[in-house]
């Protein structure tokens, strides 16, 4: 059987990444250039700066990825790029590089959904079985997705306001922690105790939707009021209380979804999948429910091109290609429409 080598490009936010993935499984290279130090001084990602940084580093990252893979562009079977969702300026950098490579090399072009990439990061070291449910948790997304079959997705629950990663970053700011806030809150939480009572929005609702703006606002108000009264906030305890409350919500909604749908696996994916308490609690939940759980290794949790290549291989198999002359980036993109995409 002929090997299929996918060159994948990911620039949806503040990581510039290029990977070469063989047959959707074997990662020959996965180079990631992060912008954390650049955005740290602003306490979050500045879209205009992010897109400029992508322009500065994309060709170097591409060159390094090819060198590490020990392949040439002639060995590549298809070019795969994240079309969306994400920051439009950042996406456009990757999309334009992908279109150019596809056109010049006369290689098929695959426009991949960023969240499909996160989901199929589980496929690199494991094998996703259908049907399954994925909990997607990141800076921009909090969703429960029912996966009926290969590239066949249905969103059964989503955040109605802030994504969980966004809430983490804003709470971190209140605790005077550096960006990115999620890992810092997690670390601080591990030395604290659950002593502050915080709201659990939508916890009793019958659906699978989430809301995190209330808990974020409660932390902000608590810190503000304590400063006004000159009372001390025990930061490690507030971090622990916040994290415990968030994980309680994510676990409860995930448990409800698993119990309602007859699925073979549960997947935890996205940048926040690296959170220590969330991993621990969902592993315990899966054991209690006697369901297999897949969590990608840490290097595949945050944004990277290997996951885009893993998903891109399935697009290739299903002959879901796009025209390099007409492809455009999309800051919002419906994951439920993948199989309705143009098949050339």
Describe this structure in words.
The protein is of the alpha/beta class. It folds into 2 domains: 5-120 and 301-340, ATPase, nucleotide binding domain (Nucleotidyltransferase, domain 5); 127-295, Nucleotidyltransferase, domain 5. The protein is built from 11 helices and 10 strands. It has helices at residues 36-40, 47-69, 88-105, 114-120, 122-125, 164-174, 181-189, 213-228, 235-260, 276-289, 305-317, and strands spanning 5-10, 15-22, 26-34, 78-84, 109-113, 132-137, 142-149, 152-158, 265-269, 292-294. The strands form 2 sheets. Strands 3-2-1-4-5 form a 5-stranded mixed sheet, with helices on both faces. It has a 5-stranded mixed sheet with strand order 8-7-6-9-10, with helices on both faces. Helix 2 (47-69) runs parallel beside helix 3 (88-105) and helix 6 runs antiparallel to helix 9 (235-260). The longest helix is centred in the C-terminal third of the chain and has 26 residues, at 235-260.
List keywords for this structure.
globular, 2 domains, single chain, 344 residues, alpha/beta, Nucleotidyltransferase, domain 5, 10 strands
What layout of secondary structure does this protein have?
Elements: E1 5-10, E2 15-22, E3 26-34, H1 36-40, H2 47-69, E4 78-84, H3 88-105, E5 109-113, H4 114-120, H5 122-125, E6 132-137, E7 142-149, E8 152-158, H6 164-174, H7 181-189, H8 213-228, H9 235-260, E9 265-269, H10 276-289, E10 292-294, H11 305-317
Parallel strand pairs: 1-4, 4-5, 6-9, 9-10
Antiparallel strand pairs: 1-2, 2-3, 6-7, 7-8
């Amino acid at each position: 059987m002929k090997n299929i080598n996918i060159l994948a490009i990911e620039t949806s936010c503040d990581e510039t990444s290029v990977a070469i993935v063989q047959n959707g499984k074997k990662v020959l290279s996965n180079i990631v250039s992060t912008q954390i130090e650049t955005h740290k001084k602003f306490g979050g990602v500045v879209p205009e700066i992010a897109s400029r940084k992508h322009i500065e580093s994309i060709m170097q990252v591409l060159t390094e990825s090819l060198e590490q893979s020990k392949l040439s562009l002639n060995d590549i079977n298809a070019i795969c790029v994240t079309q969306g969702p994400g920051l439009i300026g950042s996406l456009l950098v990757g999309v334009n590089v992908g279109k150019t490579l596809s056109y010049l090399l006369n290689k098929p072009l695959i426009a991949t959904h960023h969240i499909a990439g996160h989901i199929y990061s589980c496929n690199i070291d494991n094998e996703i079985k259908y049907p399954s449910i994925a909990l997607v948790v990141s800076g921009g997304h909090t969703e429960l997705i029912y996966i009926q079959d290969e590239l066949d997705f249905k969103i059964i629950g989503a955040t109605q306001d802030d994504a969980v990663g966004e809430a983490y970053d804003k709470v971190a700011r209140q605790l005077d922690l550096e960006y990115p806030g999620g890992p810092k809150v997690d670390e601080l939480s591990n030395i604290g105790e659950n002593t502050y009572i915080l709201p659990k929005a939508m916890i009793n609702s019958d659906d699978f939707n989430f809301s995190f703006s209330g808990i974020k606002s409660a932390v902000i108000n608590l810190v503000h009021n304590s400063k006004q009264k000159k009372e001390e906030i025990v930061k490690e305890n507030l971090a622990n209380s916040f994290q415990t409350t968030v994980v309680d919500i994510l676990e409860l909604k995930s448990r409800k979804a698993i119990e309602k749908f007859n699925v073979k696996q549960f997947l935890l994916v996205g940048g926040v999948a690296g959170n220590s308490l969330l991993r621990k609690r969902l592993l315990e939940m899966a054991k209690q429910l006697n369901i297999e759980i897949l969590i990608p290794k840490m290097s595949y949790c945050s944004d990277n091109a290997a996951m885009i290549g893993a998903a891109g291989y399935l697009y290739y198999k299903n002959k879901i290609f796009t025209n390099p002359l007409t492809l455009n980036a999309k800051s919002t993109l419906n994951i439920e429409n993948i199989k309705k995409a143009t098949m050339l």
